[in-house]
Amino acid sequence: MILKKVLILIIILIIVSCSSQKKQNVLNILNWAEYIDENLLAQFEKEHNVKINYDCFNNTEEMMAKFNNTKNYYDIIVPSEYLIGDLRDENKIELLDHSKLPNVKKNILDELKNLEYDPGNLYSVPIFWGVLGILYHKNKIDINDMNEFDILFNEKYKKEIAMLDSPKENIGVALKKLGYSLNEHSIPIIKEAEKLLKNQVSLVVGYFSDIAAKSLMLNGEASIQLTWGGEAIDAMLKDPNLDFYTPNSTNLWFDVLAIPSDAPNKELAYKFINFLYENEASYANFEETKYNSPNKNVLKRLKSEATNKPEMKLYLDDRFVPKNFSKHEVFKRISKKVKEEQMRIYVEISS
């Protein structure tokens, strides 16, 4: 009888041990759609004997809904820079231990080390960065009509304009069109932008994720797309009739890697972030997505390759890799009231 009890106890301990081990070997990531070289996921799984659960989203609102509706699940999230302040103040993300991120310290671009949204990269490190601009069809658009964001509101191009499914970007370009800052948070002025956007509704083919809108451009169903640099490069490589325009003053954005405070496997999260900053991994990620890498050695490699491969110069073009950050605007934190107003406007124009 005693032997039987001992055997049962041993079996229970083995089951608990296996269950615990299985939990420790899972990494849960929440990232933008088509925003990583999936071969890197397989490589990390093999090297560390882990399983990666990889969830995707298409806009910031979807990301926050997924993140806020889970507890003790995600180990890594990829928010946009303007969310970091709120996530930090609400104790939702980890103060990073940079001693566990030696590749970040060694390889991150100097320009990305001390940005206003997260001085010293205390709570986040960039995964990609770039600018907001306009992808257009060279044979269907008069380049003389391209002045800042004006063409997005030009009746001449009715039903040829694809906008993003994002409140902040839509309201931001309307504010710029009206001569204001992207970061204008005055409700009366935001209502001016609302009026402009409601007048624009009849001109657009719809409000889409960047990936869906890119498909419209490639299929000839749209001639103008508000989008980000990486998606534009990918489209231009697939169709030489497409080109990209960067307004003189536009949105400079940074998507970042952060570790939730309640992440169940923080040590593995650190290893994965550090892995992404390895030179080969960073280059593979850039090559797959076409977005600007935060790794300075990727930029050095591109400059070297461009010497013998002229086509590589596109990746170094000022339209995509701005040398002067100060002339562009990074989105800043907004109050709950402004956020709700932006969402109300977007719902009304996109319904």
Automatic annotation (TrEMBL):
Keywords: Periplasm, Signal, Transport. It comes from the Bacteria. It holds the Pfam family SBP_bac_8. GO terms for biological process: polyamine transport. One of its GO terms (molecular function) is polyamine binding. Spermidine binds at residues 34, 82. GO terms for cellular component: periplasmic space. CDD domains: PBP2_PotD_PotF_like_2. It is found in: Periplasm. This is Spermidine/putrescine ABC transporter, binding periplasmic protein. It comes from Borrelia recurrentis (strain A1).
